[in-house]
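dumping this here so i dont lose it
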């Protein structure tokens, strides 16, 4: 009887501790990785540092190296595409509120995407020439860009799927000004395009970025 009672007491103490350890292991979040010249974009396979504007890195469970993205838009699209893995445990984006300038966001300038404020639908295109979801660490900094470049401020979960999943085409305005617009997504998925040897997503030609 005493042995049974001791066993029950031990179980009541150890099981919560074991459960807590398991929960801690599940929510463990890796630290952001310094961006170097070796980093290549997950979709375009081009050097991430070859492009201006904010970047992103996504960490998958069990993978010591992050996936790199030349535009934040692509990282958000990664999380929305049904064919991509869902076991990501951290998404980091550049905080453009403290970036040196548009061309150099900083190799160690990272914040969690969940904590960021994003400016979408602005006239400021991303480093691949596509409409960008521009991240800021503060709402005030995001509002300042909206006043200067248009658009609106949203949180990560509020970014519309169509904004990041639609292919992008280059257009020319009435005075010969160039820009980029999103068009409805094609029936072919990015995985199918990659299998066929095509780019994972469509970008407009690179545009010259302006400093924030």
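and the seq i came up w/
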């Amino acid at each position: 009887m005493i042995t049974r009672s001791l066993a029950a007491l031990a179980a009541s103490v150890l099981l919560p501790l074991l459960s807590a350890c398991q929960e801690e292991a599940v929510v463990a979040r890796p630290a952001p990785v310094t961006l170097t010249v070796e980093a290549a974009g997950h979709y375009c396979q081009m050097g991430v540092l070859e492009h201006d504007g904010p970047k992103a890195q996504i960490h998958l469970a069990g993978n010591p190296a992050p996936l790199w993205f030349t535009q934040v838009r692509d990282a958000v699209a990664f999380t929305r595409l049904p064919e991509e893995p869902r076991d990501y445990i951290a998404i980091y984006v550049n905080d453009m509120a403290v970036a040196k300038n548009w061309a150099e966001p900083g190799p160690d300038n990272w914040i969690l995407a969940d904590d960021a404020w994003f400016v979408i639908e602005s006239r400021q295109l991303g480093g691949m020439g596509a409409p960008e979801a521009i991240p800021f660490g503060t709402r005030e900094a995001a509002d300042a860009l909206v006043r200067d470049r248009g658009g609106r401020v949203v949180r990560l979960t509020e970014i519309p799927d169509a904004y990041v999943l639609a292919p992008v085409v280059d257009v020319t305005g009435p005075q010969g000004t160039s820009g980029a617009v999103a068009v409805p997504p094609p029936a072919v998925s990015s995985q199918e395009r990659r299998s066929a040897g095509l780019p994972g997503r469509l970008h407009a030609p690179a545009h010259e970025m302006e400093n924030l």
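Residues 168 and 181 are 6 Å apart (CA to CA).
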